[in-house]
Specification:
The protein is α+β, with helices and mostly antiparallel strands and about 200 residues long. The chain contains four helices and five strands; from the N terminus they run ααββββαβα. About 25% of the residues are buried.
Length: about 200
């Protein structure tokens, strides 16, 4: 008997069926709990990295906790400490029903107009060549390969929540660190251009 049939036989026995049904009823709550813990810890790690960095004067970490970490479109952003107009932020966010985790550079508010700042156009094209995509909310975004609500990822989190969240927080921190100077300069250009990218 193959594994799947053996599991079905075991769970459908009169002794095990009540327990199997109770587990099936609670599994979404288990996934929710792990998802919330994941985003809380990623937020904490990014806040710690920001606090000990030279970037803390110009940037801050903001999570989507107000919107609930149970939302399918939730994440953590590194945003300008002060912004008078539309600006670029670095964000890691889960999207879609399996909650794929994406990283990228996001607008502080939806932007659908044509980009007129040459430096920003060039910056965007460089990342598009690396497979980054664009939307009215994202200047650039790309999947990380992590899908938070898949069985494999949940099991990894259950075994090593600290290690996995550190790895993902480091991924977004490195992306931010590599692009901080450029993004800060572009944000300044946007402000000087009357808030128009």
């Amino acid at each position: 008997m193959d594994y799947e049939k053996a599991v079905v036989e075991f769970l459908s026995s009169k002794e095990n069926l009540p327990f199997a049904l109770e587990i099936a009823e609670k599994i979404e709550s288990v996934k929710d709990k792990i998802q919330v813990e994941f985003w809380e810890l990623v937020t904490k790690k990014l806040e710690e990295q920001m606090a000990g960095s030279p970037f803390a004067e110009n940037w801050k970490v903001k999570s989507d906790k107000e919107e609930s970490f149970l939302n399918n479109h939730v994440g953590v952003a590194i945003i300008p400490a002060e912004a008078e107009c539309i600006s670029l932020t670095v964000k890691i966010k889960q999207v879609s029903s399996v909650c794929e985790i994406e990283k990228g550079i996001r607008w502080s508010s939806e932007f659908q107009d044509e980009i007129t700042i040459d430096k920003l156009v060039k910056f965007k094209k460089e990342y598009e060549l690396q497979g980054f995509k664009t939307t009215p909310w994202w200047l650039l975004h790309k999947g990380t390969g992590y899908k938070i609500r898949t069985d494999d990822f949940l099991i990894r989190l259950a075994h090593d929540l600290e290690g996995v969240t550190s790895q993902i927080a480091d991924l977004v921190w490195e992306f931010f660190s590599e692009n901080e100077e450029e993004i800060r300069h572009i944000n300044k250009l946007i402000e000087e251009n009357g808030g128009k990218p």
